[in-house]
């Protein structure tokens, strides 16, 4: 039989042991609670990253839903490839009926070329799919650091999208085009690469299957390329479906008055055939080392609309004379007389540019 004193001793040891385990259980419970609280209040980095990626994907999908374009208009046929004795040396080119897409003459129509600043047409059409003309564009360090041709935009300045389009189309300003791509890419939380992804998405919708753009400006890059065929598609879309672009391309000169968002900028139109060849109303010029001097010129005479595309001329004069030669050839198919090339006073246009630049400041 166990004595009372023995029983008391065993009871005290049991109580001590219980208190020991209760402390360990309490510690484990507190630690578990703290860990659970960390997951509730501050989700794991992995989970947070997944949410951010999900947000980016959702904004990209939303942006893609706004991208316009269809492949119902495209160049038809190859046209003539006959020798034109007044045509300066070029790498590629074409003259097309703007409405029907019929190719009247072409050279290396589907050969891969560097599109230079003709690419800016795709940059600005994509931007107009995502924002209205009065939308404010912020000038980034990346934009203000672009190489000429530039407006001279300063980091932190703001332009409306229409103002930036004027700079990108009329003066082919790299800083204006870059500001558009950077600003809208940032607003959609997809960055510059995401914006250029939308540009390529748009090209695919238009049917410009042999083009891939990686720079918003058109500056040379091994992965930035197009064809005369595709550039015709891009240009037709820009002129027909985007009046903001068509208006800018047909304007000889525009001044952006200084305001609380930016200083004064003058925008002469570098398309030398505008105002010198009958009916010319656009569209875009370009130059890079790889591309040479390039241009897309649209003109209408007696109800007939044509589009001339030149790539790889050796000078501004050769570029514009080549475009005028193709326009003469094209209008001749409709029994419209050739415009005398020696009547195209490019020197006067160059002098006009100098006066516009000096007079605006």
Q: SSE string, helix = H, strand = E?
A: HHEEHEHEHHHHHEEEEEHH
As a percent range, the share of strand residues is 5-15%
Tell me what the CATH architecture is: 3-Layer(aba) Sandwich
What is the overall pLDDT average? Answer: 86
Poorly predicted residue ranges: 25-54
CATH topology (fold) name: Beta-lactamase
CATH superfamily: DD-peptidase/beta-lactamase superfamily
Give the end-to-end Cα distance, rounded to a whole number of Å. Answer: 116 Å
Helix segment count? 11
Q: Helical residue percent?
A: 40-55%
General shape: globular
Describe this structure in words.
This protein is an alpha+beta fold. The chain has a single domain, classed as DD-peptidase/beta-lactamase superfamily (Beta-lactamase, 3-Layer(aba) Sandwich). The protein has eleven helices and nine strands. It has helices at residues 4-41, 45-66, 120-130, 141-144, 161-170, 174-187, 191-206, 228-241, 243-250, 316-332, 346-359, and strands at residues 92-97, 103-107, 136-138, 158-160, 253-256, 265-268, 280-288, 292-301, 304-313. Helix 3 runs antiparallel to helix 5, helix 3 (120-130) runs parallel beside helix 6 and helix 5 (161-170) runs antiparallel to helix 6 (174-187). The longest helix has 38 residues, at 4-41. The radius of gyration is 32 Å and the shape is globular.
């Amino acid at each position: 039989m166990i004595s009372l004193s023995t029983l008391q001793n065993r009871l005290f040891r049991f109580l001590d042991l219980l208190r020991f385990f209760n402390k360990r259980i309490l510690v484990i419970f507190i630690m578990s609670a703290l860990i659970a609280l960390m997951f509730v209040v501050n989700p794991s980095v992995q989970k947070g990253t997944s949410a951010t990626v999900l947000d980016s994907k959702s904004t990209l999908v939303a942006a893609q839903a706004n991208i316009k374009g269809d492949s119902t208009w495209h160049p038809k046929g190859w046209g003539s490839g006959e020798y034109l004795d007044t045509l300066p040396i070029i790498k590629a080119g074409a003259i097309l009926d703007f409405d029907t897409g019929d190719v009247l003459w072409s050279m290396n129509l589907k050969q891969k070329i560097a599109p230079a600043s003709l690419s800016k047409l795709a940059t600005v059409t994509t931007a107009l799919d995502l924002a209205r003309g009065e939308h404010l564009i912020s000038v980034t360090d990346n934009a203000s650091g672009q190489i000429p041709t530039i407006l001279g935009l300063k980091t932190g300045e703001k332009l409306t999208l229409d103002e930036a389009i004027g700079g990108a189309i009329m003066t082919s300003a790299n800083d204006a085009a870059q500001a558009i791509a950077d600003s809208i890419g940032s607003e959609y939380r997809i960055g510059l690469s995401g914006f250029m992804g939308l540009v390529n998405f748009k090209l695919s919708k238009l049917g410009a299957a042999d083009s891939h753009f990686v720079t918003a400006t058109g500056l040379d890059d091994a992965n930035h390329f197009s064809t005369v065929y595709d550039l015709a598609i891009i240009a037709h879309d820009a002129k027909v479906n985007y009046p903001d672009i068509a208006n800018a391309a047909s304007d000889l000169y525009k001044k952006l008055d200084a305001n609380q968002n930016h200083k004064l900028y003058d925008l002469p139109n570098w398309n030398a055939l505008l105002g010198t060849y009958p009916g010319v109303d656009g569209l875009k010029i370009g130059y890079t080392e790889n591309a040479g001097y390039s241009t897309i010129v649209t003109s209408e005479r007696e109800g007939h609309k044509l589009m001339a595309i030149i790539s790889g001329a050796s000078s501004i004069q050769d570029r514009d004379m080549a475009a005028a030669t193709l326009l003469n050839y094209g209008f001749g198919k409709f029994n419209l007389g050739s415009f005398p090339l020696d009547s195209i006073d490019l020197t006067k246009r160059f002098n006009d540019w100098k006066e516009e630049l000096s007079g605006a400041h």
